[in-house]
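Fig. S4 source data, part A: sequence.
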Amino acid sequence: LAMSLVSEYLPPTKFASGISIYMLSQTVAQVIGPGAGLWLIDAIGFSATYLISAGLLALSIISISRVREIPRERPPYQLRIGRMFAREAVDKALVLALFATAFGATTSYLVLYATKLGIQNIGVYFMVYAVCLLATRPLFGNLADHVGAQKVLIPGVLCFGASYVMLAHIGDFWGSGCCSCGCKCE
């Protein structure tokens, strides 16, 4: 719903860059959250961290209540499958779901993986990731407006995949040391 509201306000010539900035805010929050959560848990414990999270959710509810839609005529509500799903969006939604699953799995288990490998301060990863997003999202959104989304998406997907291959073989915080493949490398 939020994406639909944002897309209604964007001019066609700035659509990709506008969506990238909107998604940047969402992604940065998802990236900063784990690092901030780890820091808060160490500093004040689990219960206080959950209370702070509940307060942030309450603040978001207040913020959402202040969003105003552009008035438009709406057809009468009818509960039908054809009105609930846009066929032309299914393939795009599937691709986004696959990316979100990969990202969600990584952010959920990265801390456990780092602990298993003996890596300290994994929260730094989330901060570096956020900085990279801040630098690249607006740039590539603007580039997609000028050269087309597909010419930006294909190299981006290849980089995304390469990052997961690299993550699977990392041995320590700086990428040296023994990999997780079980070999006896030094």
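Fig. S4 source data, part B ends here. The helical segments are 2-9, 15-44, 46-65, 81-84, 87-117, 123-147, 149-168.
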